[in-house]
Amino acid sequence: MEERILELLQEKERSIHELQALLALNNSEGFTVLLKALNHLEDEGKVVRNEKNEYLLIENSNYIVGVLHINKRGFGFVIIDEESEDIFISSRDLKDEEAAKVKATVLAYDGVAVITNTSNPVKELTIEQIRDIFTGKITNWSEVGGSNAPIVVVSREAGSGTRTAFEEGVEYSEEELVKDAIISKGNGDVKTTVSTNENAIGFVSFEYVDDAISSINVNGIEPTAANVKAGSYALSRPFLAVTNEQYITEDSQKLIDYITSEEGQQIVEDNKLITID
């Protein structure tokens, strides 16, 4: 399948749904197989996604960033052991062994909000309660102070950065997710599902939070940009520029300096991420 995907991308960039149709993978199982193949090709540094979330061959892209390898055991930066001049982008903190070999500069922050339907009386949960809900140990809202109603868990698809950040923050594995969870293909889909199901619970990036849904306080802390910056809100992640100081070029450093400047941070804010100041 991977060879066929590469052939299709040789012609032009394509969305995952276009690839699904061209490969005749017309069910959820086929979509999962395709997503795993695309994730592997990304891991191998053969394909990349553009701003429209379309896949294209990395040899045909104009991106200045390097490749961030991702697998079930975590992240591995090829920059660590190579004489690379690239900027690598990470959406999680570095491990100690990684931080010892590279420099990480925070470009922005993002928070992950736990959301419920506006009619749900539950407004606070602990990390442990959230973990128990998403792993199926807690199955009724009455167990956490709510109505006597079954909990409908809504999660993102495998490979989602928001899902990875949420699972790491709540501390459960992909395999532990409750089996009857509704899987949505985007923050917007999660929000729509939760806003139309009074028993649903899900998670979205801060930028999707509005009056259509309720956001839950986690460990008694409100999900706000200020609390993310203060380090008190548990479900957040940094966006890092990871570089090898020994080989970074002047142009690469200028780009990082621009993003962290007042003008660059205004762009961060305009795109509904959390600034570093």
Can you summarize this structure?
The protein is α/β, with parallel strands linked by helices and 277 residues long. The protein has helices at 2-11, 16-22, 28-43, 96-99, 127-134, 161-170, 187-195, 225-230, 250-259, 262-270, and strands at residues 47-49, 55-57, 68-71, 74-77, 88-90, 103-116, 124-125, 152-156, 182-184, 200-205, 214-215, 217-218, 236-243.
Instruction: Detail the poorly predicted runs.
Output: 62-81
N-C termini distance: 46 Å
Overall structural class, as computed from helix and strand content, comes to alpha/beta
The averaged pLDDT comes out at 86
Using DSSP, what is the number of strands?
Answer: 13
Measured by DSSP, the beta-strand proportion falls in 15-25%
Query: What is the chain-wise order of helices and strands?
Result: HHHEEEEEHEEHEHEHEEEHEHH
**Radius of gyration, taken over Cα atoms and rounded to an integer in Å:** 20 Å
Describe this structure in words.
The structure is a single chain. Strands 5, 6, 8, 9, 10, 11 and 13 form a 7-stranded mixed sheet that branches. The radius of gyration is 20 Å and the shape is globular. It is an alpha/beta fold and 277 residues long. It has 10 helices and 13 strands.
